[in-house]
């Protein structure tokens, strides 16, 4: 099957975006050079479903440089950039994606990349893996394994594994230190507020930002909100994370109370209906809602549309809903991932680490194909450390090294 994209004539713009990313991704650039020589993916097919913008595109080109035959689609209807998709097709990759796909088109694009019988799956959110297990069981013997990029996808994988349904090994890329400590915290924190600011053009300082969820992503969003001058309220279900938020200087309360106070609401939980009808009815006039979790269910958009007396497109990518109370509340990017559906996603330097982990984890699967004995695999520590060491070198920083005497001290028996 040939590629399915919006317009191949957009390729030049996409090429410029990818070139900019390449200039700012030192790790991926060195991996591209190494892979071009060693060809670790020679003869292998890779199916990839990740938010299809310039950083992802460069990862695809790095994997192709390593000998992989690439079959690419997006992982969210509003995060694909059509010029980037065109640039990949022009570079010889098969791509099935365009901005604004409906649900049927989205699923058809996933089918299109899976029907080639991939050996490696690179997923973001778990849709590739899920469809592989439901519609392409006959191709599972061809799969060596896969890599999962995000928290939501890992939640789905762990549930499948617990039920005994997972049929091939998956590397939990999101759990690598060089991924979640930087991508989830600093990447999400900056890109979420980039998306909010460029879409609303409103000041944050002096306002109340409600952050639902205080995992690594929530920590980043709260930290950036504080830096922009907002008063921050965190909502949580985990008492330990709630204490952490308090000690980080934030207020903590249930969403039902926070709903009355917030000017901005950002959901970052991986759960559904975090903001529901009761919350909508309590919100002040002009409250702005957005989601930074993978799926668009954290804000109960279905119920919001049902109870709204009126809907109005008030600004590009912002929809207003008039509540029975007479107040208006506003939702950015249809409740989808605000940093990608209303922005360009994480900074290139951050994704450089995350996608280096992806590329090296895929290489690990190929190299250890005959000895993988678990369905759930953590990123090997030496891979994590290698990425960190290389990144430090590119940052021009050096660290200390234990002397032989110090190593002996740390390793000596206490008996």
Question: What does this protein look like?
Answer:
- It is a single chain.
- The chain has 415 residues and is an alpha/beta fold.
- The chain has 2 domains: 8-175 and 346-394, 3-Layer(aba) Sandwich (Rossmann fold), CATH 3.40.50; 188-336, NAD(P)-binding Rossmann-like Domain (Rossmann fold), CATH 3.40.50.720.
- It contains 17 helices and 15 strands.
- The strands form 2 sheets. An 8-stranded mixed sheet has the order 9-8-7-10-11-14-13-12, covered by helices on one side. The chain has a 7-stranded parallel sheet with strand order 3-2-1-4-5-6-15, sandwiched between helices.
- Helix 8 (177-200) packs across helix 9 (216-227) and helix 8 runs antiparallel to helix 15 (348-367).
- The longest helix has 24 residues, at 177-200.
- The protein is globular, with a radius of gyration of 22 Å.
- The N and C termini lie far apart (66 Å).
Q: How is the secondary structure organized here?
A:
Elements: H1 11-23, H2 26-38, E1 45-49, H3 54-65, E2 69-73, H4 82-90, E3 94-96, H5 103-114, E4 120-123, H6 127-135, E5 145-148, H7 151-162, E6 170-172, H8 177-200, E7 208-212, H9 216-227, E8 231-235, H10 239-247, E9 251-252, H11 255-258, E10 264-267, H12 277-282, E11 287-291, H13 301-307, E12 310-315, E13 318-322, E14 328-332, H14 338-341, H15 348-367, E15 376-378, H16 381-394, H17 404-411
Parallel strand pairs: 1-2, 1-4, 2-3, 4-5, 5-6, 6-15, 7-8, 7-10, 8-9, 10-11, 11-14
Antiparallel strand pairs: 12-13, 13-14
Helix pairs in contact: 1-3, 1-4, 2-3, 2-15, 3-15, 8-9, 8-15, 15-16
């Amino acid at each position: 099957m040939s590629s399915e994209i919006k317009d191949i004539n957009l390729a030049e713009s996409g090429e410029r975006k990818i070139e900019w990313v390449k200039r700012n991704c030192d790790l991926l650039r060195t991996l591209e050079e190494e892979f071009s020589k060693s060809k670790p993916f020679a003869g292998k097919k890779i199916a990839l479903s990740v938010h299809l913008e310039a950083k992802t595109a460069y990862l695809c080109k790095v994997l192709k440089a390593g000998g992989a035959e690439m079959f690419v689609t997006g992982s969210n209807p509003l995060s694909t950039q059509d010029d980037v998709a065109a640039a990949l097709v022009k570079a010889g990759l098969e791509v099935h994606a365009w901005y604004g796909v409906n649900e049927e088109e989205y699923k058809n694009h996933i089918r299109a990349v899976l029907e080639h019988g991939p050996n490696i799956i690179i997923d973001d959110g778990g849709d590739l893996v899920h469809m592989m297990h439901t519609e392409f069981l006959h191709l599972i013997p061809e799969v060596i394994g896969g890599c999962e990029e995000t928290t939501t996808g890992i939640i789905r994988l762990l549930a499948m594994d617990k039920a005994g349904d997972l049929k091939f090994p998956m590397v939990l890329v999101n759990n690598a230190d060089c991924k979640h400590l930087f991508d989830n915290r600093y990447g999400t924190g900056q890109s979420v507020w980039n998306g909010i600011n460029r879409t609303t053009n409103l000041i944050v300082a002096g306002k109340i930002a409600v952050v639902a969820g205080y995992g690594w992503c929530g920590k980043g969003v709260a930290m950036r909100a504080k830096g922009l001058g907002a008063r921050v309220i965190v909502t949580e279900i985990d008492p330990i994370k709630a204490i952490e938020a308090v000690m980080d200087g934030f207020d903590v309360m249930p969403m039902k109370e926070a709903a009355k106070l917030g000017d901005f609401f950002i959901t970052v939980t991986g759960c559904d209906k975090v903001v529901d009808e009761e919350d909508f009815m309590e919100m002040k006039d002009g409250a702005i809602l957005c989601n930074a979790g993978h799926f668009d269910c954290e804000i109960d958009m279905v119920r919001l549309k049902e109870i709204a007396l009126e809907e109005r497109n008030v600004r590009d990518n912002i929809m207003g809903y008039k509540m029975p109370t007479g107040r208006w509340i506003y939702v950015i990017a249809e409740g989808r991932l605000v940093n990608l559906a209303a922005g360009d996603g994480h900074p290139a330097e951050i994704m450089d680490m995350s996608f280096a982990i992806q590329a090296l984890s895929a290489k690990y699967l190929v190299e250890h194909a005959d000895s993988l004995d678990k369905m759930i695999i953590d990123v090997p520590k030496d891979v994590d450390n290698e990425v960190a060491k290389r990144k430090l070198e590119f940052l021009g920083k050096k660290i200390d090294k234990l002397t032989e005497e110090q190593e002996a001290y740390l390793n000596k028996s206490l008996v």
